[in-house]
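Internal ticket #5521
Category: modeling
Description: The requester needs a full-assembly model to guide mutagenesis choices. All entity lines are attached below as received. Residue total reported by intake: 507.
Assigned to: D.W.
Attached entities:
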Amino acid sequence: MKIPKQTLAFLQESGGLARFAGRVFTEGLHPPFELSEFLRQCYLIGNKSLPLVGTTAFIMGLVLTIQLRPALLSYGVESELPYIVADAIIREIGPVITGLIFAGKIGSGIGAELGSMNVTEQIDAMEVSGTNPFRYLVVTRVLAATLMLPLLVLLSDAIAITGSFIGINIKGVMSFGLFTDEIFQFLDFTDVFPPLIKTFFFGFSVGIVGCYKGYTSSRGTEGVGRSANASVVIASMMIFLIDLIAVQITDLLGFN
Amino acid sequence: MTDMNIRNDEAPVIRIRDLSIAFGTHVVLDGFDMTLAKGEDLVVLGKSGSGKSVLIKCIIGLLSPDRGSIRVLEDEVTEMDHPALDRMRSRVGFLFQSNALYDSMTVRENLEFPLRRHWITLSQGEVDDMVMEALTNVGLAETVDLMPSELSGGMRKRIALARTLILKPEIILYDEPTTGLDPITSRGISDLMVEIADKYKTSSVIISHDMRCVERTSERIIMLIDGKCYRTGTYAEMSRSDDPAIMPFFQ
Protein backbone atom coordinates (compact mmCIF):
# COMPACT_ATOMS: atom_id res chain seq x y z
CA MET A 1 0.00 0.00 0.00
CA LYS A 2 1.33 3.40 -0.93
CA ILE A 3 0.94 6.10 1.70
CA PRO A 4 0.08 9.50 0.20
CA LYS A 5 2.97 11.94 0.35
CA GLN A 6 1.13 14.47 2.52
CA THR A 7 0.08 11.83 5.05
CA LEU A 8 3.67 10.64 5.24
CA ALA A 9 4.91 14.21 5.75
CA PHE A 10 2.33 14.76 8.49
CA LEU A 11 3.32 11.54 10.24
CA GLN A 12 7.01 12.36 9.98
CA GLU A 13 6.43 15.85 11.35
CA SER A 14 4.31 14.72 14.28
CA GLY A 15 6.74 11.87 15.02
CA GLY A 16 9.64 14.32 14.95
CA LEU A 17 7.79 16.71 17.25
CA ALA A 18 6.95 13.91 19.70
CA ARG A 19 10.58 12.72 19.82
CA PHE A 20 11.72 16.31 20.28
CA ALA A 21 9.29 16.75 23.18
CA GLY A 22 10.56 13.51 24.70
CA ARG A 23 14.10 14.83 24.52
CA VAL A 24 13.06 17.87 26.58
CA PHE A 25 12.25 15.50 29.45
CA THR A 26 15.27 13.23 29.07
CA GLU A 27 17.77 16.08 28.72
CA GLY A 28 15.99 18.63 30.88
CA LEU A 29 15.94 16.42 33.96
CA HIS A 30 19.71 15.97 34.14
CA PRO A 31 22.23 18.54 35.33
CA PRO A 32 23.80 20.90 34.45
CA PHE A 33 20.69 23.06 34.64
CA GLU A 34 20.80 26.38 32.83
CA LEU A 35 19.15 28.33 35.64
CA SER A 36 20.21 31.86 34.73
CA GLU A 37 19.21 31.40 31.09
CA PHE A 38 15.88 29.92 32.24
CA LEU A 39 15.17 32.97 34.43
CA ARG A 40 16.19 35.30 31.60
CA GLN A 41 13.77 33.50 29.29
CA CYS A 42 10.98 33.69 31.90
CA TYR A 43 11.48 37.43 32.09
CA LEU A 44 11.65 37.87 28.32
CA ILE A 45 8.75 35.56 27.50
CA GLY A 46 6.46 36.82 30.26
CA ASN A 47 7.35 40.48 29.98
CA LYS A 48 7.28 40.60 26.18
CA SER A 49 3.70 39.36 25.93
CA LEU A 50 2.26 41.24 28.92
CA PRO A 51 1.22 44.50 27.18
CA LEU A 52 -0.45 42.65 24.32
CA VAL A 53 -2.16 40.13 26.59
CA GLY A 54 -3.31 42.89 28.96
CA THR A 55 -4.79 45.05 26.19
CA THR A 56 -6.68 42.22 24.50
CA ALA A 57 -7.95 40.91 27.83
CA PHE A 58 -9.28 44.32 28.82
CA ILE A 59 -11.07 44.77 25.50
CA MET A 60 -12.41 41.22 25.61
CA GLY A 61 -13.94 41.69 29.07
CA LEU A 62 -15.45 45.02 28.15
CA VAL A 63 -16.89 43.93 24.81
CA LEU A 64 -18.25 40.65 26.14
CA THR A 65 -20.10 42.49 28.91
CA ILE A 66 -21.62 45.05 26.56
CA GLN A 67 -22.70 42.34 24.13
CA LEU A 68 -24.20 39.96 26.71
CA ARG A 69 -26.09 42.68 28.53
CA PRO A 70 -29.19 42.95 26.20
CA ALA A 71 -29.70 39.16 26.22
CA LEU A 72 -29.58 38.96 30.02
CA LEU A 73 -31.77 42.05 30.26
CA SER A 74 -34.48 40.38 28.21
CA TYR A 75 -34.48 37.41 30.65
CA GLY A 76 -34.47 39.79 33.60
CA VAL A 77 -31.20 38.41 35.02
CA GLU A 78 -29.01 41.43 34.46
CA SER A 79 -27.63 41.06 37.97
CA GLU A 80 -25.99 37.76 36.90
CA LEU A 81 -23.90 39.62 34.30
CA PRO A 82 -20.68 39.77 36.41
CA TYR A 83 -20.69 36.04 37.14
CA ILE A 84 -21.58 34.97 33.59
CA VAL A 85 -18.84 37.13 32.06
CA ALA A 86 -16.29 36.10 34.68
CA ASP A 87 -17.10 32.42 34.23
CA ALA A 88 -16.81 32.67 30.45
CA ILE A 89 -13.49 34.47 30.79
CA ILE A 90 -11.98 32.16 33.38
CA ARG A 91 -13.16 28.91 31.82
CA GLU A 92 -12.58 29.54 28.16
CA ILE A 93 -11.95 32.98 26.77
CA GLY A 94 -9.03 33.92 29.01
CA PRO A 95 -6.98 30.75 28.47
CA VAL A 96 -7.70 30.40 24.75
CA ILE A 97 -7.33 34.03 23.69
CA THR A 98 -4.22 34.48 25.83
CA GLY A 99 -2.87 31.19 24.50
CA LEU A 100 -3.42 32.26 20.90
CA ILE A 101 -1.80 35.64 21.44
CA PHE A 102 1.06 33.90 23.22
CA ALA A 103 1.43 31.54 20.25
CA GLY A 104 1.50 34.51 17.87
CA LYS A 105 3.95 36.53 19.88
CA ILE A 106 6.20 33.98 21.61
CA GLY A 107 5.83 30.94 19.32
CA SER A 108 6.83 32.92 16.24
CA GLY A 109 9.58 34.69 18.18
CA ILE A 110 11.13 31.42 19.34
CA GLY A 111 10.75 29.85 15.88
CA ALA A 112 12.45 32.79 14.18
CA GLU A 113 15.18 33.17 16.82
CA LEU A 114 16.23 29.52 16.88
CA GLY A 115 15.76 29.30 13.10
CA SER A 116 18.17 32.16 12.48
CA MET A 117 20.58 30.78 15.07
CA ASN A 118 20.50 27.53 13.14
CA VAL A 119 21.07 29.25 9.80
CA THR A 120 24.01 31.29 11.08
CA GLU A 121 25.61 28.22 12.72
CA GLN A 122 25.19 29.62 16.23
CA ILE A 123 23.71 26.31 17.42
CA ASP A 124 26.75 24.44 16.05
CA ALA A 125 28.98 27.05 17.70
CA MET A 126 27.36 26.33 21.07
CA GLU A 127 27.88 22.63 20.55
CA VAL A 128 31.62 23.08 19.88
CA SER A 129 31.83 25.56 22.79
CA GLY A 130 31.03 22.78 25.23
CA THR A 131 27.45 23.84 25.93
CA ASN A 132 24.62 21.48 25.10
CA PRO A 133 22.51 23.74 22.84
CA PHE A 134 19.41 21.64 23.41
CA ARG A 135 19.55 22.26 27.14
CA TYR A 136 20.62 25.87 26.82
CA LEU A 137 18.16 26.92 24.12
CA VAL A 138 15.28 24.45 24.02
CA VAL A 139 14.75 23.21 27.57
CA THR A 140 14.92 26.73 29.04
CA ARG A 141 12.46 28.18 26.51
CA VAL A 142 9.97 25.32 26.74
CA LEU A 143 10.01 25.44 30.52
CA ALA A 144 9.69 29.23 30.59
CA ALA A 145 6.75 29.15 28.16
CA THR A 146 5.07 26.38 30.18
CA LEU A 147 5.31 28.35 33.42
CA MET A 148 4.72 31.87 32.10
CA LEU A 149 1.50 31.24 30.18
CA PRO A 150 -0.53 30.23 33.27
CA LEU A 151 0.69 33.39 35.03
CA LEU A 152 -0.26 35.49 32.03
CA VAL A 153 -3.67 33.81 31.92
CA LEU A 154 -4.30 34.63 35.60
CA LEU A 155 -3.33 38.24 34.94
CA SER A 156 -5.40 38.45 31.79
CA ASP A 157 -8.41 36.98 33.63
CA ALA A 158 -8.08 39.70 36.25
CA ILE A 159 -7.70 42.43 33.63
CA ALA A 160 -10.65 41.12 31.60
CA ILE A 161 -12.84 41.11 34.71
CA THR A 162 -11.80 44.70 35.37
CA GLY A 163 -12.79 45.48 31.79
CA SER A 164 -16.12 43.84 32.47
CA PHE A 165 -16.65 46.02 35.56
CA ILE A 166 -16.13 49.12 33.42
CA GLY A 167 -18.44 47.65 30.75
CA ILE A 168 -21.21 47.23 33.32
CA ASN A 169 -20.77 50.79 34.56
CA ILE A 170 -21.03 52.26 31.07
CA LYS A 171 -24.74 51.44 30.84
CA GLY A 172 -25.61 51.02 34.47
CA VAL A 173 -24.28 51.49 37.98
CA MET A 174 -22.70 48.79 40.11
CA SER A 175 -20.18 49.21 42.90
CA PHE A 176 -16.94 47.23 42.74
CA GLY A 177 -17.85 45.47 45.99
CA LEU A 178 -21.18 44.26 44.65
CA PHE A 179 -19.52 43.30 41.36
CA THR A 180 -16.95 41.06 43.04
CA ASP A 181 -19.57 39.66 45.45
CA GLU A 182 -21.69 38.65 42.47
CA ILE A 183 -18.75 36.83 40.95
CA PHE A 184 -17.37 35.07 44.02
CA GLN A 185 -20.80 34.05 45.26
CA PHE A 186 -21.08 31.56 42.43
CA LEU A 187 -17.49 31.01 41.36
CA ASP A 188 -16.18 27.59 42.35
CA PHE A 189 -12.76 25.91 42.42
CA THR A 190 -13.91 23.73 39.54
CA ASP A 191 -14.40 26.91 37.51
CA VAL A 192 -10.83 28.01 38.09
CA PHE A 193 -8.51 24.99 38.33
CA PRO A 194 -9.28 22.82 35.29
CA PRO A 195 -8.85 25.80 32.93
CA LEU A 196 -5.66 26.81 34.71
CA ILE A 197 -4.22 23.30 34.35
CA LYS A 198 -4.84 23.26 30.62
CA THR A 199 -2.88 26.50 30.23
CA PHE A 200 0.30 24.66 31.29
CA PHE A 201 -0.26 22.37 28.31
CA PHE A 202 -0.97 25.37 26.06
CA GLY A 203 2.30 26.97 27.16
CA PHE A 204 4.23 23.74 26.69
CA SER A 205 2.89 23.27 23.17
CA VAL A 206 3.70 26.86 22.16
CA GLY A 207 7.25 26.45 23.50
CA ILE A 208 7.87 23.01 22.06
CA VAL A 209 6.46 23.78 18.60
CA GLY A 210 8.41 27.05 18.32
CA CYS A 211 11.63 25.34 19.41
CA TYR A 212 11.09 22.32 17.17
CA LYS A 213 10.39 24.37 14.07
CA GLY A 214 13.30 26.72 14.76
CA TYR A 215 15.81 24.09 15.83
CA THR A 216 15.10 21.89 12.82
CA SER A 217 14.51 24.66 10.27
CA SER A 218 16.09 24.21 6.87
CA ARG A 219 19.13 26.32 6.16
CA GLY A 220 18.56 29.67 4.46
CA THR A 221 16.54 32.75 5.25
CA GLU A 222 13.41 31.26 3.71
CA GLY A 223 13.59 28.46 6.26
CA VAL A 224 13.57 31.01 9.11
CA GLY A 225 10.36 32.62 7.82
CA ARG A 226 8.75 29.26 7.30
CA SER A 227 9.60 28.04 10.79
CA ALA A 228 8.25 31.24 12.41
CA ASN A 229 5.04 30.91 10.43
CA ALA A 230 4.60 27.18 11.02
CA SER A 231 5.23 27.67 14.75
CA VAL A 232 2.22 29.97 15.05
CA VAL A 233 -0.08 27.85 12.89
CA ILE A 234 0.74 24.52 14.55
CA ALA A 235 0.79 25.94 18.10
CA SER A 236 -2.61 27.61 17.56
CA MET A 237 -4.09 24.37 16.24
CA MET A 238 -2.66 22.48 19.19
CA ILE A 239 -4.22 24.96 21.61
CA PHE A 240 -7.67 24.20 20.18
CA LEU A 241 -7.00 20.45 20.17
CA ILE A 242 -5.85 20.49 23.79
CA ASP A 243 -8.88 22.64 24.66
CA LEU A 244 -11.13 20.03 23.07
CA ILE A 245 -9.48 17.19 24.97
CA ALA A 246 -9.42 19.14 28.25
CA VAL A 247 -13.14 19.84 28.17
CA GLN A 248 -13.87 16.14 27.62
CA ILE A 249 -11.69 15.18 30.55
CA THR A 250 -13.15 17.75 32.94
CA ASP A 251 -16.62 16.66 31.83
CA LEU A 252 -15.78 13.00 32.50
CA LEU A 253 -14.43 13.89 35.92
CA GLY A 254 -17.59 15.82 36.68
CA PHE A 255 -15.96 19.24 37.03
CA ASN A 256 -18.19 20.96 34.51
CA MET B 1 47.89 9.71 -1.30
CA THR B 2 51.33 10.50 -0.11
CA ASP B 3 52.46 11.85 3.20
CA MET B 4 55.90 12.69 1.89
CA ASN B 5 55.50 16.40 2.43
CA ILE B 6 54.58 16.24 6.06
CA ARG B 7 57.04 16.54 8.87
CA ASN B 8 57.85 13.20 10.33
CA ASP B 9 59.48 14.19 13.61
CA GLU B 10 56.27 14.13 15.69
CA ALA B 11 53.01 12.20 15.67
CA PRO B 12 50.37 13.86 13.48
CA VAL B 13 47.71 15.86 15.35
CA ILE B 14 44.99 14.80 12.91
CA ARG B 15 45.00 11.56 10.96
CA ILE B 16 42.03 10.74 8.74
CA ARG B 17 41.70 7.41 6.96
CA ASP B 18 39.11 6.24 4.45
CA LEU B 19 36.57 8.89 5.50
CA SER B 20 33.23 8.49 3.73
CA ILE B 21 29.96 10.29 4.21
CA ALA B 22 26.86 10.55 2.06
CA PHE B 23 23.65 12.55 2.40
CA GLY B 24 20.92 10.36 0.95
CA THR B 25 22.26 9.21 -2.40
CA HIS B 26 24.69 12.12 -2.69
CA VAL B 27 28.17 10.89 -1.81
CA VAL B 28 30.22 13.81 -0.44
CA LEU B 29 33.40 12.20 0.87
CA ASP B 30 34.46 8.87 -0.54
CA GLY B 31 37.53 7.33 1.07
CA PHE B 32 39.24 10.61 1.95
CA ASP B 33 42.66 10.48 3.62
CA MET B 34 44.49 13.33 5.31
CA THR B 35 47.24 13.90 7.84
CA LEU B 36 48.03 17.12 9.69
CA ALA B 37 51.44 17.40 11.33
CA LYS B 38 51.98 19.37 14.54
CA GLY B 39 52.42 23.05 13.78
CA GLU B 40 51.46 22.63 10.14
CA ASP B 41 49.11 24.97 8.25
CA LEU B 42 47.18 22.89 5.78
CA VAL B 43 44.72 24.24 3.21
CA VAL B 44 42.00 22.00 1.82
CA LEU B 45 41.11 23.26 -1.62
CA GLY B 46 38.12 22.21 -3.66
CA LYS B 47 35.09 23.49 -5.53
CA SER B 48 32.01 24.72 -3.65
CA GLY B 49 29.96 21.73 -2.56
CA SER B 50 32.95 19.39 -2.77
CA GLY B 51 32.60 18.50 0.92
CA LYS B 52 35.27 20.72 2.49
CA SER B 53 32.96 22.05 5.22
CA VAL B 54 31.58 18.55 5.77
CA LEU B 55 35.16 17.37 6.29
CA ILE B 56 35.95 19.80 9.10
CA LYS B 57 32.53 19.28 10.68
CA CYS B 58 33.39 15.57 10.81
CA ILE B 59 36.73 16.41 12.46
CA ILE B 60 35.04 18.45 15.23
CA GLY B 61 32.32 15.80 15.66
CA LEU B 62 29.35 17.85 14.43
CA LEU B 63 28.72 15.24 11.72
CA SER B 64 29.27 11.50 12.01
CA PRO B 65 30.86 9.84 9.00
CA ASP B 66 29.40 6.68 7.49
CA ARG B 67 32.81 5.01 7.41
CA GLY B 68 36.42 5.68 8.24
CA SER B 69 38.60 6.83 11.06
CA ILE B 70 39.39 10.32 12.36
CA ARG B 71 42.10 10.55 15.01
CA VAL B 72 42.46 13.97 16.59
CA LEU B 73 45.30 14.41 19.11
CA GLU B 74 45.65 10.61 19.33
CA ASP B 75 41.95 9.97 20.08
CA GLU B 76 39.38 8.47 17.74
CA VAL B 77 36.57 11.02 17.19
CA THR B 78 34.07 8.51 15.81
CA GLU B 79 34.14 6.55 19.07
CA MET B 80 33.91 9.51 21.46
CA ASP B 81 30.98 9.97 23.83
CA HIS B 82 29.71 13.44 24.66
CA PRO B 83 32.11 14.33 27.50
CA ALA B 84 35.07 13.09 25.43
CA LEU B 85 33.94 15.16 22.44
CA ASP B 86 33.62 18.13 24.74
CA ARG B 87 37.20 17.71 25.96
CA MET B 88 38.52 17.27 22.44
CA ARG B 89 36.66 20.43 21.37
CA SER B 90 38.35 22.46 24.08
CA ARG B 91 41.67 21.67 22.37
CA VAL B 92 40.40 22.23 18.83
CA GLY B 93 39.05 25.64 17.80
CA PHE B 94 36.54 26.08 15.00
CA LEU B 95 36.06 29.33 13.09
CA PHE B 96 32.67 29.26 11.39
CA GLN B 97 32.14 30.61 7.91
CA SER B 98 29.26 32.79 9.13
CA ASN B 99 31.24 33.67 12.32
CA ALA B 100 28.34 32.30 14.41
CA LEU B 101 28.59 35.12 16.97
CA TYR B 102 25.63 35.04 19.36
CA ASP B 103 23.49 38.03 18.32
CA SER B 104 21.83 38.39 21.70
CA MET B 105 25.11 38.68 23.61
CA THR B 106 27.79 41.36 23.81
CA VAL B 107 31.31 40.70 22.54
CA ARG B 108 32.40 39.99 26.13
CA GLU B 109 29.61 37.45 26.68
CA ASN B 110 30.41 35.85 23.34
CA LEU B 111 34.02 35.37 24.39
CA GLU B 112 33.08 34.14 27.85
CA PHE B 113 30.75 31.51 26.42
CA PRO B 114 33.42 28.82 25.71
CA LEU B 115 34.63 29.26 29.30
CA ARG B 116 31.26 28.02 30.59
CA ARG B 117 32.47 24.41 30.17
CA HIS B 118 31.48 22.79 33.39
CA TRP B 119 34.95 21.57 34.36
CA ILE B 120 36.54 24.99 33.96
CA THR B 121 36.36 27.06 37.12
CA LEU B 122 37.81 30.52 36.89
CA SER B 123 37.50 33.68 38.94
CA GLN B 124 35.91 36.72 37.29
CA GLY B 125 39.32 38.39 37.23
CA GLU B 126 40.87 35.48 35.31
CA VAL B 127 37.95 35.45 32.88
CA ASP B 128 38.32 39.20 32.26
CA ASP B 129 42.04 38.79 31.65
CA MET B 130 41.47 35.96 29.16
CA VAL B 131 38.81 37.97 27.31
CA MET B 132 41.07 41.01 27.07
CA GLU B 133 44.04 38.93 25.96
CA ALA B 134 42.02 37.27 23.19
CA LEU B 135 40.62 40.62 22.06
CA THR B 136 44.03 42.29 22.13
CA ASN B 137 45.39 39.47 19.96
CA VAL B 138 42.91 40.38 17.24
CA GLY B 139 43.35 44.11 17.83
CA LEU B 140 39.80 44.85 18.97
CA ALA B 141 40.06 45.40 22.73
CA GLU B 142 37.83 48.48 22.51
CA THR B 143 34.80 46.54 21.22
CA VAL B 144 34.38 44.48 24.39
CA ASP B 145 30.98 45.88 25.34
CA LEU B 146 29.50 46.24 21.86
CA MET B 147 26.91 43.96 20.30
CA PRO B 148 27.92 41.90 17.24
CA SER B 149 25.38 43.82 15.12
CA GLU B 150 27.36 47.03 15.74
CA LEU B 151 30.50 45.59 14.14
CA SER B 152 31.63 45.41 10.53
CA GLY B 153 32.11 42.09 8.71
CA GLY B 154 35.88 42.10 9.21
CA MET B 155 35.54 42.98 12.90
CA ARG B 156 33.02 40.18 13.41
CA LYS B 157 35.45 37.75 11.83
CA ARG B 158 38.16 38.93 14.23
CA ILE B 159 35.85 38.60 17.23
CA ALA B 160 34.90 35.10 16.11
CA LEU B 161 38.61 34.33 15.88
CA ALA B 162 39.15 35.76 19.36
CA ARG B 163 36.38 33.49 20.68
CA THR B 164 38.08 30.53 19.02
CA LEU B 165 41.41 31.53 20.57
CA ILE B 166 40.22 32.06 24.12
CA LEU B 167 40.83 28.44 25.15
CA LYS B 168 44.26 28.46 23.41
CA PRO B 169 43.47 25.54 21.12
CA GLU B 170 46.21 23.31 19.73
CA ILE B 171 44.43 22.99 16.39
CA ILE B 172 42.26 25.57 14.65
CA LEU B 173 39.82 24.63 11.89
CA TYR B 174 39.00 27.58 9.64
CA ASP B 175 35.86 27.34 7.50
CA GLU B 176 36.35 29.80 4.63
CA PRO B 177 37.81 32.55 6.82
CA THR B 178 37.91 35.26 4.15
CA THR B 179 34.69 34.60 2.25
CA GLY B 180 32.56 37.72 1.89
CA LEU B 181 35.32 40.14 2.94
CA ASP B 182 36.94 42.83 0.80
CA PRO B 183 40.53 42.15 -0.40
CA ILE B 184 42.15 44.43 2.20
CA THR B 185 40.22 43.03 5.19
CA SER B 186 40.75 39.58 3.78
CA ARG B 187 44.50 40.14 3.71
CA GLY B 188 44.35 41.38 7.31
CA ILE B 189 42.60 38.18 8.38
CA SER B 190 45.14 36.03 6.51
CA ASP B 191 48.01 37.90 8.23
CA LEU B 192 46.31 37.43 11.59
CA MET B 193 45.97 33.69 10.98
CA VAL B 194 49.70 33.41 10.26
CA GLU B 195 50.51 35.56 13.31
CA ILE B 196 48.38 33.37 15.59
CA ALA B 197 49.90 30.17 14.22
CA ASP B 198 53.38 31.54 14.97
CA LYS B 199 52.51 32.94 18.40
CA TYR B 200 50.64 29.95 19.82
CA LYS B 201 52.28 27.22 17.70
CA THR B 202 48.88 26.00 16.58
CA SER B 203 48.27 23.61 13.73
CA SER B 204 45.53 24.61 11.32
CA VAL B 205 43.24 23.18 8.70
CA ILE B 206 42.02 25.96 6.44
CA ILE B 207 39.11 25.54 4.06
CA SER B 208 39.25 28.21 1.42
CA HIS B 209 39.07 29.02 -2.24
CA ASP B 210 40.35 32.57 -1.87
CA MET B 211 43.70 31.99 -3.56
CA ARG B 212 45.38 35.00 -1.98
CA CYS B 213 44.50 33.64 1.46
CA VAL B 214 45.64 30.18 0.39
CA GLU B 215 48.97 31.51 -0.82
CA ARG B 216 49.51 33.51 2.36
CA THR B 217 48.53 30.87 4.89
CA SER B 218 49.29 27.46 3.39
CA GLU B 219 52.34 25.35 4.03
CA ARG B 220 50.71 22.50 2.17
CA ILE B 221 47.59 22.13 0.07
CA ILE B 222 45.28 19.14 -0.29
CA MET B 223 43.09 19.06 -3.38
CA LEU B 224 39.69 17.61 -2.49
CA ILE B 225 38.15 16.37 -5.72
CA ASP B 226 35.33 13.80 -6.07
CA GLY B 227 35.36 13.16 -2.33
CA LYS B 228 38.98 12.03 -2.33
CA CYS B 229 42.37 13.52 -1.63
CA TYR B 230 43.29 14.12 -5.26
CA ARG B 231 46.75 15.53 -4.71
CA THR B 232 48.84 17.22 -2.05
CA GLY B 233 51.76 19.63 -2.30
CA THR B 234 52.95 23.11 -1.55
CA TYR B 235 51.42 26.19 -3.16
CA ALA B 236 54.40 26.52 -5.48
CA GLU B 237 54.20 22.89 -6.58
CA MET B 238 50.46 23.01 -7.15
CA SER B 239 50.54 26.29 -9.06
CA ARG B 240 53.02 24.78 -11.51
CA SER B 241 50.80 21.75 -12.11
CA ASP B 242 49.46 21.19 -15.60
CA ASP B 243 46.74 18.84 -14.37
CA PRO B 244 43.40 20.07 -15.82
CA ALA B 245 41.66 19.39 -12.48
CA ILE B 246 44.10 21.57 -10.53
CA MET B 247 45.03 24.32 -13.02
CA PRO B 248 41.72 26.27 -12.91
CA PHE B 249 42.21 27.03 -9.19
CA PHE B 250 45.54 28.73 -9.78
CA GLN B 251 44.65 30.75 -12.87
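Resolution: model delivered.
Comment from assignee: Chain A has one domain: 35-252.
Ticket closed.
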